[in-house]
């Protein structure tokens, strides 16, 4: 009886493991450029079990288009990361890739790509005036510009 219980526990944990790792996070987002891929990896590793979702992977997100394309909290977190870490052009690029991948695989993108772009652009760091330097009087010194 003990070996049957052990076998069932092992089978159960293997099943949960295979559901949670339906894909490989290291390669799942390989169609994205490096910085955008890094944001997907980062958000996945830090938030895949804390973001609100209706996926069926023991309360966590499933590494599958059927889950990710339809989870607004995931799409929002990734768009914000891409805006913060990769910049404005990457936000637009990533939204296009996400929309294409979801549609290609037969799933709706629950947050329209234009909204993802807006979310990502809102997260792009704003340059401060003090970080801009201008040349002054040919002395080789740099000063902050004045208005």
From TrEMBL:
Heme binds at residue 65. GO terms for molecular function: metal ion binding. Disulfide bonds join 60-67, 69-102. It is found in: Membrane; Secreted. Keywords: Disulfide bond, Glycoprotein, GPI-anchor, Heme, Iron, Lipoprotein, Membrane, Metal-binding, Secreted, Signal. It is a lipid-anchor; GPI-anchor. Residues 7-127 form the CFEM domain. The keyword Glycoprotein applies. Transmembrane segments: none annotated. Its main location: membrane. Residues 1-21 form the signal peptide. InterPro entries: Extracellular_membr_CFEM_dom (IPR008427). Belongs to the RBT5 family. This is CFEM domain-containing protein. It comes from Hyaloscypha hepaticicola.
